[in-house]
């Protein structure tokens, strides 16, 4: 079952790419520089700068959380669509085969 990439899937792909880039940057030299800048802002009592730098430091975590929530939503959407396509048999329809076997053996 091949399907076209739709709106939520495109958002998930873009968010996943941004998340990967953010983690790569924050785990590298840029993250170290931001940590030093955050410490310097706290020492200098520049709380506005500390808040901005702090938000930059937690950006990968926030992107990961957003991506996870949207991915769960997309998975549930796909599961729900697949369940809607199935034709479920009732209990009576499922038991007809057993009924035939029972009558064959026990008349």
Short description:
By secondary structure, the chain is an all-alpha fold. It is built from 4 helices and no strands. The protein has one domain.
Largest sheet: none
Give the C-alpha Rg.
Answer: 27 Å
Give the topology string: H per helix, E per strand: HHHH
What fraction strand?
Answer: under 5%
Q: How far from one another are the termini? A: 45 Å
Task: Report low-confidence residues grouped into runs of 5 or more.
Answer: none
Number of strands: 0
What is the count of DSSP helices, taking H or I runs of 4+ residues?
4
Number of domains: 1
Class derived from helix and strand content:
mainly alpha
What is the helix fraction of residues, given as a range?
A: over 70%
Mean pLDDT: 87
Q: Name the shape in a single word.
A: rod-shaped
General description of the model:
The protein has one domain. The protein is mainly α and 107 residues long. 84% of the residues lie in helices and 0% in strands. It has four helices and no strands. Helix 1 (7-26) packs antiparallel against helix 3 and helix 2 (29-43) packs across helix 3. The protein starts with 6 loop residues before the first helix and ends with a helix. It is rod-shaped, with a radius of gyration of 27 Å.
Summarize the helices and strands and which ones pair or pack.
Blueprint: H1 7-26, H2 29-43, H3 47-85, H4 91-106
Helix pairs in contact: 1-3, 2-3
Name some characteristics of this structure.
mainly alpha; 84% helix; 107 residues; rod-shaped; single chain
């Amino acid at each position: 079952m091949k399907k076209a990439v739709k709106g939520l899937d495109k958002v998930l792909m873009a968010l996943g790419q941004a998340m990967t880039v953010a983690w790569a940057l924050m785990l590298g030299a840029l993250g170290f520089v931001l940590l030093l800048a955050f410490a310097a802002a706290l020492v200098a009592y520049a709380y506005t700068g500390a808040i901005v730098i702090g938000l930059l430091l937690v950006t990968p975590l926030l992107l990961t959380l957003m991506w996870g929530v949207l991915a769960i939503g997309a998975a549930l959407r796909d599961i729900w669509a697949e369940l809607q396509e199935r034709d479920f048999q009732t209990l009576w329809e499922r038991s007809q085969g057993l009924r035939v076997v029972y009558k064959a053996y026990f008349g």
